[in-house]
Write a structure and sequence with these properties.
This protein is of the alpha+beta class. It is 47% helix and 13% strand. It is built from 16 helices and 14 strands. The strands form four sheets. It has a six-stranded mixed sheet, with no helix packed on it. A four-stranded mixed sheet has the order 5-8-9-12. β6 and β7 form a beta hairpin. α2 packs antiparallel against α3 and α4 packs across α5.
Length: 486
């Protein structure tokens, strides 16, 4: 299987990635991208290690492949998949939201339902199957850009002024299509191998030019990525910013300057109904979001553990009010974990043999995420108090003999010397107060769409028929004859 070194070597090709108005010459060594690229390389090395239990034999080829890119075909497969996602998530403590297993889950589900790509005027089933075989064979990191630019929320792309603002078809050729426009938000796109481009936002029949699904190499001619400001270069040290310096994923606007896409890379073409089939008929949406909830479970556990340690170092972990707050954190983390396990417990195989996590549990947890995560951060903020503001400006004050004595004397706790206390509270700040923290706050609230969209998934997947039936049965059990006053 592909190693971390193999992955890093693949980043050396020409890519048009822009930061601060300038092109990035060497992604693997640029200060904005080297830390996250190193982390992704570590994930690939973990997956390739047989001791990690993340490999499986591909029945079609007999080769060893990454379990995270295979569709689960049994309850045992589903449990092993959850364990594999957890292994990667624990390495990043849940702070890499778009690790390769996220879009990998979508592609795996696509491959289990190639018939979903055979509708309309084109049959792209073989393209989906072939791309999945490539992902398995080459152990690829695929990112995605599936949201239109925020030009207008009032209308869809066909009504926007200008020619092809959202990524759309500029030209159809015998050997493929030419794409012009832009799509967001390719998290990790700068350090990925490929980007899956589509649109999850509902489109109208007039938007056929934008109803697309295709895979494009990040180094494709005419493809450009405009990244939001990276946080890693400004971090003074891993001691001061332990999360920023490891896990700063880069979110990017993907611009298509007449990018040629061969037909064999196209999955959906000018097919509005096909967009919905690819995400929902295949089970890709629920499967990919279950992966996201497993990752989120690990992150909530990390935050709960951090809060518990802060309370202990501050010597307040026995105070009733603090225990109450820690109990609320524990409850919130347990809700996410329970939803992950419930989705697996209630899973069933669909007609093509793909074991789908149960939508009620997956979308139920997602529906609360925009309230749950900010609440966890608020509790942690309350517990750290001013402690995150009294830490020295950088690790330099702990290294400089002239300042170290003051730090040792005035910034310590009975159970932790200054070096350990400062280290702990620097970590807490990187969770609640740094730019990295702010980005994650926004990310967890909106990664699956606006809260009303996510709650819509919960509404549609809950299964109201039985509860409403219970209410109707109860109402029919009595009538006017029981209405006399007592």
């Amino acid at each position: 299987m592909r190693s971390g070194a193999d992955y890093l070597a693949a980043l050396k090709g020409p890519r048009r990635i822009y930061v601060d108005g300038a092109p990035v010459e060497d992604v693997a060594h640029h200060p904005a991208f080297a830390p996250i690229a190193k982390t992704i390389a570590e994930l690939f090395d973990i997956a390739a290690d047989p001791a990690a239990g993340m490999t499986v034999t591909d029945p079609a080829t007999g080769s060893t492949v990454n379990r995270l890119f295979t569709p689960p075909r049994s309850r045992e497969d589903l449990a092993a998949y959850r364990a594999a996602v957890t292994t990667w998530a624990r390495h990043t403590h849940g702070w890499v939201g778009r690790s390769p297993d996220h879009v990998g889950a979508f592609v795996a589900a696509f491959s289990a339902h190639p018939e979903a790509f055979a509708g309309g005027d084109h049959d792209f089933a073989v393209n989906v199957t072939s791309f999945h075989r490539r992902v398995l064979r080459e152990n690829l990191y695929v990112s995605y850009a599936i949201i239109p630019p925020q030009v207008s929320r009032a209308t869809s792309a066909h009504a926007w002024e200008g020619d092809l603002i959202q990524a759309g078809v500029a030209e159809e050729r015998p050997d493929g299509i030419v794409i012009r426009g832009a799509q967001m938000l390719a998290t990790g796109g700068a350090v990925a191998d490929e980007i899956f481009v589509s649109c999850i936002k509902p489109l109208s029949p007039e938007d056929a030019d934008f109803a697309l699904g295709f895979a494009v190499p990040v180094d494709a001619e005419g493809l450009k990525l405009y990244c939001r400001r990276p946080y890693a270069p400004a971090a003074t040290s891993s001691y001061d910013y332990p999360l920023t310096t490891r896990y700063d994923e880069t979110d990017a606007l993907v611009v298509f300057d007449d990018v040629f896409i061969p037909w064999e890379r196209v999955f959906v073409y000018r097919d509005v109904a096909g967009l919905r089939r690819q995400f929902f008929d295949t089970g890709a949406h629920v499967f990919g979001n279950w992966q996201a909830q497993i990752r989120f479970m690990v992150k909530t556990q990390f935050i709960a553990g951090l809060a518990r340690k802060v309370a202990a170092v501050n010597g307040v972990d026995k105070f009733p009010g603090v225990v109450e707050k820690l109990g609320e954190l524990a409850s919130l983390a347990a809700v996410v974990e329970s939803s992950v396990l419930a989705a697996e417990y209630a899973a069933e195989a669909d007609e093509q043999g793909l074991w789908r996590p149960h939508g009620r549990a997956v979308y139920g947890a997602m529906g609360l995420q925009a309230e749950l995560y900010p609440r966890m951060l608020a509790i942690l903020r309350d517990l750290v108090g001013g402690g995150v503001l009294q830490v020295p400006s950088s690790v330099s004050e702990l290294i400089n003999p002239e300042t170290r004595a003051d730090i040792d004397r005035y910034v310590h706790s009975p159970s932790a010397p200054a070096e350990e206390r400062v280290k702990l509270f620097k970590l807490a700040w990187d969770v609640v107060g740094s730019e990295f923290a702010g980005r994650h706050h926004q990310y967890e609230m909106f990664y699956a769409g606006a809260p009303f969209v996510v709650k819509g998934y919960a509404f549609r997947n809950y299964g109201f028929d039985d509860p409403v039936g219970d209410v109707d049965a109860f109402l029919s059990s009595y009538g006017l004859e029981g209405g006399s006053a007592r």
